[in-house]
């Protein structure tokens, strides 16, 4: 191998010295009888069997978010891992809590969810593929529900379910546009009752959201029972509890609900568990994993999907209402490359120095940073360094952050992570913010007493910078149903493109003077929020013209190749 060759993320991971998972568990203070081994390097933790000190620890949360994502890459997971490794290197007791990756986007065009370079969680190939089978269990529970629903209709329909008013779909952990709209039950009376149906991707399933917001097994069962999967002929909501199958669904999820323990290249313990999309769901790892990490560590570094307008807002307004997991600091990841793209530079020219484009694109970062402050949390900008970044560009961005009154540090964790010093300056700034934070500083963006339409209006005006919101006729009808059924007190989960503050993916930077268009509202009564579908956002993605799967294979030893 040439000394000058730049190794891929997969090659770096395969060359790393990975430790037995029992050693990582012992380091984290996890007793051996709480571990359920999945081979040598992965394990599940049974929270009910954890033996913790009498003085209960409640670790502080550091939430990692980002500017609006671009094809240039931001490196949120890489920064999360590198920051945690640097905090551990500084002597803090640290644990990471991340989402599990979805297989469909991995085979499509998105990178994995395990970080990159020398700031990765291991074993990255197994995590990015089938891992411990959690997503398969969620897929099975979702599709078992729909099989039971359609069987109920076929067997006489005692609940008077209207097949035309189903709000729940089957799911698959794959990008497959061909399954967005399907007809089922064809082939005669013995094959079921024909009706229009469709598939969502597994990470958009309400069962995924329920899985990630449940506080324990009993809460999981109760939330599953509250799921509304459709309406009766007299337009009354029909729930899983009405069908009486919440116990069976809980049984299918009883092992998956236990958090997964893995490690970083540097040996920092990491819980990787659950994974709802942030553009069509709430975008955070499981609450059980976050709370377990809080019990084991003094600082928990976690992540919310896509930009701060999506994952971070949902973390604050949805996840942090359920349990005491409000962040003490929020890291907003930015890159010189992505900022220049937000400033109008095409991807092929991003390696060329261009402070003017950087100055134009920084408006996107500015909106995200000051949005974080609206929650009473101090932001810290992490400038994720790329090899093409010039000293002039980095110094300009640091000076801009100082002028805005925002703390910032350059993080070279891709190349100097894994226990190196690439994230030390960022870690020091974050630790200082965490130490100074008070729980009373945190606040939600809106009270639950607001109407659903006013909650949506608050988000689009305060976070996106829109002038207002426009509801389609179907969305207005659904608002009336929401009020009638007593669901108006639920928080809102905005389903919006991740690439723009607007609902138009092509509008980069920090646009003004626009309107957000809500085309549909979907009550997720089990998860406990109302999804507002905007623009052209899809709950079942498609594959690109040249999927990443075209580059993937296994070698003669059965090891993956071409996986990032």
From TrEMBL:
Supply the InterPro entries for this chain. Answer: Formate_THF_ligase, Formate_THF_ligase_CS, P-loop_NTPase
Pathway entry:
One-carbon metabolism; tetrahydrofolate interconversion
> Which keywords are on file for this protein?
ATP-binding, Ligase, Nucleotide-binding, One-carbon metabolism
| Catalytic function, reaction form | (6S)-5,6,7,8-tetrahydrofolate + formate + ATP = (6R)-10-formyltetrahydrofolate + ADP + phosphate
GO terms of molecular function: ligase activity
From which domain of life does this come?
A: Bacteria
The similarity annotation says: Belongs to the formate--tetrahydrofolate ligase family.
**Any idea what this protein is called?**
Formate--tetrahydrofolate ligase
* Classification lineage: Bacteria, Bacillati, Actinomycetota, Actinomycetes, Micrococcales
């Amino acid at each position: 191998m040439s000394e000058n060759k730049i190794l891929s993320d997969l090659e770096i991971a395969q060359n790393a010295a990975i430790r037995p998972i029992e050693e990582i568990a012992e380091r984290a203070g996890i007793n051996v009888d709480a571990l359920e081994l999945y081979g040598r390097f992965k394990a599940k933790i049974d929270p009910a069997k954890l033996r913790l000190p009498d003085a209960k620890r409640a670790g502080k949360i550091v939430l990692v978010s980002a500017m609006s994502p671009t094809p240039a890459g931001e490196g949120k997971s890489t920064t999360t891992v590198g920051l945690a490794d640097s905090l551990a290197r500084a002597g803090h007791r640290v644990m990471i809590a991340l989402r599990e990756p979805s297989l469909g986007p991995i085979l499509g065009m998105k990178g994995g969810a395990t970080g990159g370079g020398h700031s990765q969680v291991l074993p990255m190939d197994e995590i990015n593929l089938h891992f411990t089978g959690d997503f398969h269990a969620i897929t099975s529970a979702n599709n078992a529900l729909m099989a039971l629903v359609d069987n109920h209709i076929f067997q006489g329909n005692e609940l008077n379910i209207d097949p035309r008013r189903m709000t729940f779909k089957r799911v698959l952990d794959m990008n497959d546009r061909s399954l967005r709209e399907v007809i089922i039950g064809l082939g005669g009376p013995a094959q079921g009752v024909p009706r229009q149906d469709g598939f969502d991707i597994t990470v958009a399933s309400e069962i995924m959201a329920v899985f990630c917001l449940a506080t324990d097994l009993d809460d999981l069962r109760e939330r599953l029972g509250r799921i509304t999967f459709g309406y009766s002929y007299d337009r009354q909501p029909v729930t899983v509890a009405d069908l009486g199958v919440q116990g069976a669904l809980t049984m299918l999820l009883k092992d998956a609900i236990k958090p997964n323990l893995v490690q970083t290249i540097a040996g920092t313990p990491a819980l990787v568990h659950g994974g709802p999309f942030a553009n069509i769901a709430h975008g955070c790892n499981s609450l059980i994993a976050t709370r377990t990490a809080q019990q084991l560590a003094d600082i928990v570094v976690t992540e919310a999907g896509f930009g701060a307008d999506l994952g971070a807002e949902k973390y604050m307004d949805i996840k942090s209402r359920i349990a005491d997991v409000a962040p003490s600091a929020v890291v907003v990841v930015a890159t010189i490359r992505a900022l220049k793209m937000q400033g109008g530079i095409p991807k092929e020219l991003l390696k060329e120095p261009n402070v003017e484009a950087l100055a134009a694109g920084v408006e996107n970062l500015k909106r995200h940073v000051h949005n974080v402050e609206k929650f009473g949390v101090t932001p810290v900008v992490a400038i994720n360094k790329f090899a093409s970044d010039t000293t002039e560009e980095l110094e300009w961005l640091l000076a801009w952050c100082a002028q805005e009154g925002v703390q910032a540090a350059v993080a070279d964790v891709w190349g100097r992570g894994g226990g190196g010093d690439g994230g030390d300056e960022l870690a020091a700034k974050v630790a200082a913010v965490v130490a100074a934070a008070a729980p009373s500083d945190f606040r939600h963006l809106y009270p639950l007493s607001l109407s659903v339409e006013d909650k949506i209006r608050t988000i689009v005006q305060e976070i996106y910078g829109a002038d207002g919101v426009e509801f389609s006729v179907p969305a207005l009808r659904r608002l009336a149903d929401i009020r009638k059924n007593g669901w108006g007190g639920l928080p809102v989960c905005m389903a919006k493109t991740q690439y723009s503050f607007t609902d138009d993916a092509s509008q980069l930077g920090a646009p003004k003077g626009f309107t957000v268009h809500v085309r549909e509202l979907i009550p997720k009564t089990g998860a406990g929020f109302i999804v507002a579908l905007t623009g052209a956002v899809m709950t079942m993605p498609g594959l690109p013209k040249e999927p990443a799967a075209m580059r993937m294979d296994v070698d003669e030893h059965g090891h993956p190749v071409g996986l990032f």
